[in-house]
Amino acid sequence: MPTPKSKIGFGALALLLLFISTPAMSKISYRESAKKKYLSEKVREMFYHAYDNYIAHAFPHDELKPLTKTYTDSLSELGNLKLEHLPQNYNGSALTLIESLSSLVVMGNNTEFERAVLWLSENLTFDVDARINLFECNIRALGGLLSAHILATDSTNRLVLGMYKNQLLSLAEDLGRRFLCAFDTPTGLPYAWINLKYGVMENETTETSTSGCGSLILEMGALSRLTGDPRFEAASLRALRKLWSMRSSLDLLGTTLDVVTGQWIEYSSGIGAGVDSFYEYLMKAHVLFGSDEFWDMFHSAYLAVQKYFRHGPWYHEADMRTGKATYWQLTSLQAFWPGLQILVGDIEAANSSHREFFHVWERFGVLPERYLLDREMLHPTEKYYPLRPELAESTLYLYQATKDPWYIEVGESIVKSLNTYTKVEGGFASVKDVTTMQLEDHQHSFFLAETCKYLYLLFNDSFLANQNYIFTTEGHPFPVRSAWHEKLPETYALNNWTSAKDENQVIRASAMSLQVCPDTLTLRRNGSPSVGSACHVLDARADHRCLVDEDCGIELTTCRKRTCSLAGYCGLWLFFL
Ligand code: DMJ
C-alpha cells in the first residue's frame, strides 16, 4: 500500500514550506542579526582576498597558486589524477573569473561583474588545443557562463545598458557544441574526456563515472532552453536515461562504467566521489524543468540510498548488485547530502548527518578528504582539505529550512577555521595534511564559486529574496521559471522555498538538542501531507496493529519496510538481517 509518489515528495516539501512560512513567534535578536552582518562582511573580505590575489597573480590563467603567487592552467588537470595528455600551448581560460561571476552578483558587486563580463566577452575562446574533463568543464565553465548570462539579463541595472549582447551565451553555446562529440558513442553515454579543439582523441579512455554521465542535465538543459537548440538537452537526457537503465534491481548504480559497452566497471558506490552530483541533478532537474521523470528517478534512487548506504547518520558504500556494504568511509564530498535532503524535506535525517560532519570538522579543524569509519583513522593518502564547500552548503540549506541559530554558529566556526588555517598573504591555500595543517599551493576555483558564496548566503540571503533559485553542483544559481516547466508543481509556484523571506520566524529548539523541526515529523493521518521523510509510509492503523505485512508502512529513519509480527504488530522485525 505504498503512498503515491506525489504525496511522498511534495508532501514533505509542503511541510517544509509550511514550516518556512509559519508566522513569527519570536524575533531574531538584534545580537543575532549583528552577528550575521559581521560574519557576512568577514566572508566578503575572504572572497575579495581570494579574488584580488587571483586577479593580481593568476588572471587570465585558470587558478591561483597562493603560496608562490603564481598560476596554474588547471582546466586540463581537473579530474586528471595522473596528469596525462597535458596541453603544450594552453594558456588558461580565466576559469576562476568565470567561476566568480555569480558570486560577484550575490555579493552585490555589479561594477566588477560588468568588468568581468566585458573582458570575457572580448577575450575568451574555447578554440584551444586542450584535453578537458567534460563533467568539470560543464559544471565550472558552462554553468558559470550560463548563470552569469541569466543574471546579466534578468536585471536592467546590473550592466550598463546596451553593453551586453548575449556574448556569454554565445560563448556557452560554442562550448556546448564542442561537448556534443563526446556523446557520439554506441550507448549515448559521453566520453569523460574531449579535446576542445579536436574532439575525442584517438584511443581515448572509454571509462567514465556515474557523475560524468548523469550530472550534465542542468547546464545542457538550460543551454537548450536559452538558445532554442534542443541538441544539448537531448544528448544529456539520453545519457541520463541510459545510465538509469543500467541500475540494478535494487535501484543502485555503480561508480564507474564503460561508455562504449555500457557495462559497469566499479560496482561499489556511495554518495561521494564519482556519484554525488548524479543524485543531486535528478532532484534539481525536477525542480528546474518540472518533469516527473526526474522525480521518479530521484525518488527510487533516494530510497535505495537510504536503505542500502545509510547507517545511522553515516553513509557507507555498497555493491549495487547485492546491497552489501563494501567500504565504510566518510568522505568530504558526502557532506553535500544533508543539503540535498533539505530539498526533499527530509530534515531530521539531514540534521543528524550534518551534525556528524561538523563534529569531524571540529575534531580536525577542517574536513579531511577521507576517513575510514571501520578503522577509525584517516585514509593514509587522503588527509587533505582542498577548501571544499560541501559542509558550508549543507549548513546554508539547514539554516534556511529551520532558522535555527545553531547553524550560524557552525558557519562562524567554518569561517574561523578557514581564516586560521588556510589564509595566506597570496590568497587561500588548500590543506595538504589535516594532521599537520601543512598547506598546498592551490586555490581551487570552487572556493570562490561555492565555499565563499554559500557562507555569504548563510549570513546574508538578500540575493534570494525575490527569486527562486536552484544552485548547480558548482554553486551557480539558475532561476526556477515557470516557462521552463513542462508542468509547474504548486509547491514551487506559490512559495519561495529556497529562501525564507522573513527574518522573524519561529526559532526552533536547537539542533544540538536533537529536536530540530519536530513539526515536520508530526504525521497527519487523514489527508496530505502525511510524511516527514521522503521514504516514510505510515502503518495502516494508528495503533500499529496489523493482520498482514501490507498493513505496515516504511520506517522513517531506516527506510526499511515494516512487517507484521505474529502478535499482530507492525515493526522492524527483520532489522538484524
Ligand atoms: C565541486 O567542483 C562540485 O561541487 C562537484 O560536484 C564536486 N565537488 C567540488 C567541490 O568540492
Question: Which tags fit this structure?
Answer:
three-stranded antiparallel sheet, binds 1-deoxymannojirimycin, 577 residues, 17 helices, Glycosyltransferase, mainly alpha, 10% strand, globular
Distance between the termini: 23 Å
Structural class determined from secondary elements = mainly alpha
Share of helix, binned: 40-55%
Number of strands: 22
Please list the strands of the largest sheet in the order they lie side by side.
Answer: 5-6-7
What do the pLDDT scores average to?
86
- CATH class of the largest domain, please? Mainly Alpha
**Parts with pLDDT < 50 across at least 5 consecutive residues:** 1-25, 487-532
Description:
The structure is a single chain. Mean pLDDT is 86; it is low at 1-25 and 487-532. The longest helix has 28 residues, at 30-57. This protein is mainly α. Strands 5-6-7 form a three-stranded antiparallel β-sheet. A three-stranded antiparallel β-sheet has the order 12-13-14, with no helix packed on it. Strands 1-2 form a two-stranded antiparallel ribbon. Helix 5 runs antiparallel to helix 6 (167-180) and helix 5 (134-153) packs across helix 8 (217-227). 42% of the residues lie in helices and 10% in strands. It is globular and about 75 Å long. It is built from 17 helices and 22 strands. The chain has helices spanning 5-20, 30-57, 95-106, 110-123, 134-153, 167-180, 210-214, 217-227, 231-245, 276-289, 292-308, 337-344, 347-364, 390-402, 406-422, 445-459, 490-494; strands spanning 63-65, 70-72, 131-133, 193-195, 207-209, 256-258, 264-266, 268-269, 310-311, 314-315, 318-319, 329-331, 370-372, 377-378, 423-424, 427-428, 430-433, 438-440, 469-471, 477-479, 563-564, 570-571. It has two domains: 5-484, Glycosyltransferase (Alpha/alpha barrel), CATH 1.50.10; 494-577, no CATH class. The protein binds 1-deoxymannojirimycin.
